[in-house]
Design a protein that fits this description.
The complex is a heterodimer of chains A (about 260) and B (about 160).
Chain A (H helix, E strand, L loop, with lengths): L12 H26 L8 H29 L3 H6 L10 H4 L5 H23 L4 H31 L1 H18 L10 H5 L7 H18 L22 H10 L1 H5 L6
Chain B lengths: L1 H17 L11 H4 L2 E7 L2 E6 L8 H14 L6 E6 L12 H9 L2 E2 L19 E5 L7 E6 L5 E5 L5
Classes of the chains: A mainly alpha (about 260), B alpha/beta (about 160).
């Protein structure tokens, strides 16, 4: 127990429900992108990357678990069931995280776009007034720094290597960019979390903070920004997903579904 | 008076028991790593507060389980709760001198409590080393390479500042 359920600030049932839904969205992003990263285990371009993506996957999935646990502290329920027992339409991850890995370039571009957004999101939680959650967010944020360091180094290397690799990175960005805006889609009622100072920064401002870092970084290495979606249409946080998520879940949850009562 | 003495004794036994709980991924105990922040005992109920090195470390659950098991073996302990704390970050300063020595004996390079000095090769002592991979066999290890004795090195990796 994280002590979250007994916080005086969370006495209102509605606020607890919104926060739980928000945390499930965070956890779903981490779980799904973690699973995608884990698919590189054994297949990455070199052994260092194999180890790196496996570690990053392990860490994202571990973080997902921590956020599921906190959601369950608020509304009851079982973190494992949340992770493995839901259908695709019940997941609240951004669509970007569920896209198949494609090539190494796409995986790296997605990792960087995602982890930069995650930093901004964790900043907002860490600056919030709910101590146990703010503490957890700053811990997770420190750990995620290594992911960014790793991803940005590959991004620079591939973009500056040859014309072919630069072209592949541009294609990867063209594919990932329209989905990235979905990382800042809100869950219903999210503005209440801002009003209650639990999440210190709202989704629009988070998106602006993210752009402020990501855009100059991409342009400085010679990539061209594709046109952007408005981000106003409902997507992953409302349960709208691609078929790729269903395929991913079928595989990821097969062991758990074979005996949901099993203890590990 | 007797009750107080018993309570004091029990607390000593708890700390002794904690000193035998090992991290399954490192040749260290939870005390060597400085993971335990606080122990509270009140009429058979024990609460242990623990700060993990990495929040997603898969060894956490193993250690929590071992702590519970070992403490429940003590006479007078009826209930054990091991809660995780993230209030203070885990840093190298928490690791004991014994812990650092054991890691070095195990062939790992160990960063000093504070500073970003170059990694020292545990085999030849050279600092002519280079980071090969910030990720290693566990979340708390990175891989370096020694340019002098040409060995790959594992280095204990504290969470980023």
């Amino acid at each position: 127990m994280s002590g979250l359920g007994t916080q005086p600030a969370l006495q209102r049932r509605e606020l607890r429900d919104v926060l739980a839904a928000y945390l499930v969205g965070v956890a779903d992003d981490e779980l799904i992108i973690g699973h995608r990263h884990s698919e590189w285990t054994g297949f990455a371009p070199d052994i260092e990357s194999d180890v790196a993506l496996s570690s990053i996957a392990q860490e994202e999935i571990g973080h997902a678990r921590l956020f599921y646990e906190r959601a369950c502290d608020l509304t009851g329920g079982d973190p494992d069931r949340l992770a493995f027992g839901r259908a695709s339409g019940e997941f609240r991850n951004a669509v970007l995280t569920e896209r198949p890995n494609g090539d190494w370039g796409y995986s790296i571009v997605r990792l960087v776009l995602y982890d930069r957004a995650d930093q901004v999101r964790l900043d907002a939680l860490a600056a919030g007034e709910l101590r146990p959650l703010a503490d957890l967010a700053s811990t997770v944020r420190r750990e995620e720094k290594y992911h960014l360091m790793y991803g940005e180094q590959w991004l620079r290397r591939l973009t500056s290597a040859t014309e072919v690799s630069r072209g592949r990175m541009q294609q990867a960005l063209d594919r990932a960019w329209p989905d990235a805006v979905g990382l800042f889609e809100s869950v219903p009622g999210q503005e209440e979390l801002r009003a209650a100072a639990i999440v210190a920064v709202g989704p629009r401002e988070q998106r602006a903070q993210w752009r402020q870092v990501v855009v100059p970084m991409l342009e400085s290495i010679g990539l061209t920004l594709p046109t952007e979606n408005s981000g106003d249409r409902a997507g992953g946080r409302a349960g709208w997903h691609s078929d790729d998520l269903r395929t991913l879940l079928d595989e990821m949850t097969s062991v758990w579904r074979s005996d949901p009562q099993a203890t590990w | 008076m007797t009750a107080m003495r018993t309570a004091g004794l029990l607390e000593d036994q708890i700390w002794e028991a904690l000193a035998t709980v090992e991290d399954p991924e490192l040749p260290l105990t939870v005390m060597d790593l400085g993971l335990i922040d606080e122990v509270q005992v009140s009429s058979g109920r024990v609460r242990v507060r623990m700060t993990p090195t990495y929040s997603a470390c898969p060894a956490i659950e193993v250690m929590r389980h071992d702590i519970r098991k070992k403490l429940l073996n003590l006479r007078g302990v009826e209930e054990v709760e091991v809660e995780l704390s993230f209030a203070e970050p885990w840093t190298m300063a928490r690791m004991t001198e014994r812990g650092r020595a054991r890691l070095r004996e195990h062939g790992l390079s160990v960063p000093s409590p504070r500073s970003a000095e170059p990694a020292t090769c545990p085999f030849c002592g050279s600092t002519n080393t280079v980071l090969e991979n910030p990720f290693g066999p566990t979340l708390c290890r990175a891989i370096y390479y020694c340019r002098d004795c040409r060995n790959p090195i594992e280095r204990f990796k504290p969470p980023a500042e």
